[in-house]
């Protein structure tokens, strides 16, 4: 059974080569998608896809990280690791969503933001930090879905939202298990131990209050029954969008602020 899998086994499913990527969900869930390109500063980043579309006859803005499938597409998409222009493009499209009062649906699937020298020279850290600030203040609903990997700031750069969903076998973490094991244990082969300690599975994240809902997957993962997984996600998106669609902006921002401030609490044991 899926719920008997270890955290490391969950991560292996999240990274399965046949696991659906963002474009698979985009094609099944949305109609009339119109992609927008470029950040108006440097160029276009194929690792992030952003644009307008419709969900159940309602106009929405859709943003997602795409890893690609074939070797050629993976290279084109930079294996889903965005550059700063990708985050700036995402923010540009989110600002359009705010202007036209459209909800934003953001899909996360990245091992992390691209750590190359060029990306750093073009302001990778600033682009992510600016997105965190702007998304926290965006005057329109933001729904976030973690599809497979949610790696560090690379995920957070499009991950601030009013409601966070995660697929059952996806994970969300400040660092990969391999990176954590290399730092703490000086041995990347201890990644399964790190995965256990990091508490990065969907169930752990729900208990910690870092996500709001788990989207069920079939035994073996989403690639075993993609359309069933899509239907589960469709029902959840429909329900949540109806809840947030007509919420007053002042209330929306206040609740988002409370939600963000609740992250990272220190819990002290009561004195005996």
Strand content: 15-25%
Tally of DSSP helical segments: 12
Distance between the termini: 40 Å
- The domain count comes to 1
Mean pLDDT over all positions: 93
What structural class do the secondary elements suggest?
A: alpha/beta
Q: Look at the structure and name the CATH superfamily.
A: 2-enoyl-CoA Hydratase, Chain A, domain 1
**Name of the CATH class:** Alpha Beta
Q: Could you say which overall geometry the principal axes of the C-alpha atoms support? A: globular
CATH topology: 2-enoyl-CoA Hydratase, Chain A, domain 1
Order of helices and strands: HHEEEHHEHHEHEEHHHEHH
Task: Describe the 3D structure.
This protein has a single domain (2-259), classed as Alpha-Beta Complex (2-enoyl-CoA Hydratase, Chain A, domain 1). Strands 1, 2, 3, 4, 5, 6, 7 and 8 form an eight-stranded mixed β-sheet that branches. A hairpin with a 2-residue loop joins β2 and β3. The protein is 43% helix and 18% strand. It is α/β, with parallel strands linked by helices and 272 residues long. Component of the acetyl coenzyme A carboxylase (ACC) complex. First, biotin carboxylase catalyzes the carboxylation of biotin on its carrier protein (BCCP) and then the CO(2) group is transferred by the carboxyltransferase to acetyl-CoA to form malonyl-CoA. Its main location: cytoplasm. Its EC number is 2.1.3.15.
